Amino acid sequence: MSRTFLDTNVFLYAFLNQDVGKKSVAAEIISDAVRHGCGFVSLQVVNEFCNVMVKKSGKTLAELLDATRLFGRLRMVDGSLRLAQRALEIKSLYGVQFYDSLMLSAAESAGCDEILTEDLNDGQMYGSVKAVNPFKGL
Predict the structure, then answer these.
(1) What is residue 69's DSSP assignment?
(2) pLDDT at 1
(3) Helix, strand and coil percent figures for the chain, each rounded to 5
(4) What is the pTM of this model?
(5) The CATH number of domain 4-132, selected from 3.30.160.40, 1.10.10.10, 3.40.50.1010, 3.40.50.720
(6) Residue 17 scores a pLDDT above 80
(7) Neighbours of 81 (CB within 10 A)
(8) 3-state secondary structure of 7
(9) Where are the domains of the chain?
(10) How many helices, marked H, and strands, marked E, lie in the chain?
């Protein structure tokens, strides 16, 4: 199984009741990542998830705290100055938004083969990490 970095939108689709197709795909991705121990996230993903959920979910803070426990079942990429510096290099090379380049930097540092995201060009290689849109066609 490949090492896979999960972008924030995967978690948001799994937890917010918006698009039933995307919710199902996202839930399966997370379940597989936990089951096989191949899913990676960064603190940035956790923070973005919390921010959106506080604003849009209507859930209590206790419910949100419980939801964040899921991240503890995935592999966490620690932040560092080097990650931020590499993110700037990635931004310069590929012209992506800084926070997307920061996730790419985290994925790269963890040795991930792919990043599951809607925010980058599906199929494009960003250094050693391939962007895959798991919701393409939905």
Answers:
(1) G
(2) 65
(3) 55, 15, 30
(4) 0.94
(5) 3.40.50.1010
(6) no
(7) 7
(8) coil
(9) 4-132
(10) 6, 6
